[in-house]
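Write out this protein's structure.
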Amino acid sequence: MQVKAAQREKYKAVRKSIAHRSLADLQITDRLFSSAVYRDAASVFCYVSAGTEVDTKDVLLDALTSGKKVAVPYCTEQPGVMEFYFITSLSELVPGKYGILAPDVRVCVPAVSDARTLLVVPGLAFDRCGYRLGYGQGYYDRYLKKFHGISIGLCYNKCIADHLAHDIYDQRVDYLACQDFIRKAELHK
């Protein structure tokens, strides 16, 4: 756990140091939009960006306007557990846990993934095998374990590592997208 904590501090600092972040965000989302995994998805389950995460507002808007079903995460009262809810507009987002915008569960419908669902995953960093370094609460690891579609991690070039510490509970994403590339995560080394 000390290794993960040190890696978290390192990549938090790296993300804060990213110059021209809005340009980098645009390059990453352009790569995503041009990919077959995005084009072929009937539904997009996507995080609502906060802080220094890769900005997903354009992803959410594009998916909504292109006729895809769109769902965003809601952190439940149960520690480390989140569920996705469909939205039809960004106006259905309200302040949620940790101050992050979340679906208004009073009006939004719970979402269920299938083989044509693309899950867009945040992370402080990802390694080439698709392992993710998150904030340490396990939300995405728990969700990925039961997810039935294709997952993709969005991050900045400087946040792609050769190897990140991981354990038996950590789940991999299927694809990685950054400014320079979008590609399938490598097999275990």
